[in-house]
Amino acid sequence: MNDAAPSASERQARTAARMRPDLEIIAEMVEPGSRVLDVGCGDGALLDFLVHNRQVVGRGIELSQKGVNASVSQGLSVIQGNADTDLKDYPDRAFEYVILSQTLQATHDPREVLEHLVRIGRYAIVSFPNFAHWRARLHLLLTGRMPVTEALPEPWYETPNIHLCTICDFVALCRRCGIAIERLLVLDADGRPRAIERLGWANLLGEQALFLLRRDGSHPG
Question: 0.70 cut: is pTM over it?
Answer without folding.
Answer: yes
